[in-house]
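Subgroup meeting minutes
Present: P.N., E.W., G.H.
Scribe: E.W.

1. P.N. recapped why we're keeping a running log of single-chain structure predictions: easier to compare across weeks, and new members can see raw inputs and outputs side by side.
2. G.H. added today's entry (72 aa).
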Amino acid sequence: MADIKLKDISQLGSWNPKELRKLRMVINNRIGSLEKGAKPKELPENHPLAKLDVEQIKELLVKVHKAEKNQL
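Output recorded in log:
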């Protein structure tokens, strides 16, 4: 599976389709866990979503969708 931990989320245009798909799935899972209100799992420091809140993650999801469409 694609490794997204070392990738820069500000450079989504350079990500390949597998990495974008994995990031999209991780984002959707993270949004779900943050919105449940339960204590979400702490992400490692090198994870791209480690220091983002729900709104920032939702904005990133929109950017990921645009990046995926641009690769088609």
